[in-house]
Automatic annotation (TrEMBL):
It comes from Banduia mediterranea. It comes from the Bacteria. This is Catalase. Residues 29-418 form the Catalase core domain. Decomposes hydrogen peroxide into water and oxygen; serves to protect cells from the toxic effects of hydrogen peroxide. Pfam families: Catalase, Catalase-rel, Catalase_C. Residues 1-33, 519-545 are annotated as: Disordered. Belongs to the catalase family. HPII subfamily. CDD domains: catalase_clade_2, GATase1_catalase. InterPro entries: Catalase (IPR018028), Catalase_AS (IPR024708), Catalase_clade2 (IPR024712), Catalase_clade2_helical (IPR043156), Catalase_core (IPR011614), Catalase_haem_BS (IPR002226), Catalase_immune_responsive (IPR010582), Catalase_large_C (IPR041399). GO terms for molecular function: catalase activity. Residues 1-13 have a biased composition (Basic and acidic residues). It is an enzyme of class 1 (oxidoreductase). Its EC number is 1.11.1.6. The lineage of its organism: Bacteria, Pseudomonadati, Pseudomonadota, Gammaproteobacteria, Nevskiales.
Amino acid sequence: MAKQNAPDHDSKQDQLSAFHRSNDGGGLTSNQGIGIADNQNTLKSGIRGPQLLEDFVLREKITHFDHERIPERVVHARGAAAHGYFQAYEPLGDTLSSASFLQDPSKKTPVFVRFSTVAGFRGSADTARDVRGFAVKFYTEDGNWDLVGNNIPVFFIQDAIKFPDLIHSVKPEPHNEIPQAQSAHSTFWDFMSLMPESMHMAMWIMSDRAIPRSYRMMEGFGIHTFRMIDDSGKSRFVKFHWKPRLGTHALVWDEAMKLGGQDPDFHRRDLWEAIDNGDYPEWEFGVQVVEEDQADQFDFDLLDATKIIPEELVPVRKIGKLVLDRNPDNYFSETEQVAFCPANIVPGIDFSEDPLLQGRLFSYLDTQLIRLGGPNFNEIPINRPVCPVHNLQRDGYGRQAIDRGRTAYEPNSLAGNCPVQGGAPRSFQSVATRVDGEKLRARSPSFADHFTQATLFYQSQSAVEQQHIVEALSFELGKCDVPHVRRRVVALLAHIDENLAAGVAANLGIEPDPDLSYLDDYTGTQPNERRGAAKPGKSPALSMVTGNPETIATRKLAILAMDGFDAAGVSAVKKAVSDGGGQCMLIAGSLGTITAEDGSEMKPDLSFMTSRSTLFDAVYVAGGEASAKAIGQDADAVHFFKEAFRHGKALAASGAAVALLQRERLPKVDYADSEQIVDDAGVVTVAGESVDWKAFTQQFVGSIAQHRHWERSGRAMVDA
Ligand code: HDE
């Protein structure tokens, strides 16, 4: 199966370079290459006279500008992308898949990955509560494979025919185009209340998974069951997983909302900067494999995209890794014009009969035709495969290829019957699966259990994660202004978990009533029975607070300091954090140099005017009498560390700054009053004269690695 000229990591980049254009050192020309002498003034009749139609320079420039925009994606409009590579851990031809990119561990297959939100327009904020798209284009030697997944392993609906309804319900309401990039409105929850199959997904999007800390810190899933075919032609069912090396982490809702205004590009910037700094994001690629003859063993149907296979039932086998190591050169040419399509598949992989997947196989190519203006979008550089393309498709808008010869049909005797079917180094063959049955519009009864896995998800969450789900639902339904919709959603929640329903109902000021008879008027079914003896139980893999690596790599620390700060503490913290792979930013009252107690000087990176705690993972308030006093007198500075405290972030203070933390009326925490280091709920403090900075910073770094310290939120406020 080894191929000549197999692509390597650089092959896509080499191909793209042929299209690079730079203005470095170039003189200004029109698109026809005519030199332009004056780019400031139009051609006029007389110095104050009217412009002349003859002015081709003006007309060309304005005309091109007028046509700069293309339709944004109907969903997933807002996104950010990067180049990288995929590398398999071991050859899989014998045991799982004959796909060419899964055979040679030394081969780096180029990839382009686009992350996105779903509901918001192209200019909307990154941190909206939403599913995140996780779309990967593999440029393999056998053609492009697109794994167009999400960061949540299930979907709202079971059948593609409901997709336009779902999206119309979540997009801004049509009469006034409000609200932007939010599911917290009446039409969305009206639809959800009538769609019990969405309840499992509802748990995921109301969880912290829907407000990731970073694209680099979220899982990815292919969602549908696919097939993999080994060298002998044997087919198995698989589910695809991406597991981030940095662990799975989230923001808190208050933070996500604030970031929407403070830095709408929060995730886009984070991805760009990490790659720019050489902190290349990495995921492991995993598969859950089910033998086809074992597919009936579960209490759920593998073809139902509202279900997971719990990892405890079928473990995730890691088969390779994905590394993102290069930012795009041009957002529009690459990130905007990339066209993903689940139907782009390569030998060794195949589809399943999942009715949601089958609908997607049609939709993506169809939507590209309008979005990218015709059938030749495959020739846009970012979409080109790195292997040769030969076919008889011809013409159409924007055609780039100059097809030579007189035959554009097959079979032909005038051109040696080329391109010959089956003549490519490898050709795709659909798995021969038996499909026969009556023609009918119906849902399989094996899809009917909508609650067991919703309950499994909810009950597998830690207490604080459950609390966040209750709060998220209370927020969302609180923004829904239709009382019967609120009541109905609470009724559905009562079938997931009584405490969940009670918590949300209390916040909405209503009594939970589990009666679902209203559904009879809409879908005509009561499709809600739990299947067989299914016991929800718990799946630890579903919680985000377990199983994360203890690392502060790429985490951001804010150091708050003013004139008179304690330089020893600041230097020690800076060193410890950068040794752990994190980044520090010094924040002061202005961007002017600040002077330490010992006379040394430092230049702040940001001021309290240009930064907020939401942009950081942890905060250190530097010691030093004068510095602590000045921070205590600056409302923005005080707000900075109080807000970080409230969001459960690691917080440290030394010397005079400890009293500052104590002074603020925060939930009760123990603070140091001597050289003894105190770490209470992730607040690390030390006072006194001779501080052991090594021990202090070690403790603080450990606290940052915990990501958040939820135990604080359960504590009572300190009395005034
Ligand atoms: Fe998509 N989806 N989708 N979707 N989807 C699109 O294609 C669609 C679904 C996903 O970064 C569109 O090129 C239908 C599931 C991602 O460019 C469109 C159905 C999953 C992206 C479309 C689904 C996804 C899209 C809009 C139900 C996770 C962004 C623009 C049958 C497995 C890719 C475009 C990128 C984009 C249709 C459901 C993921 C309209 C009909 C399930 C990550 O074709």
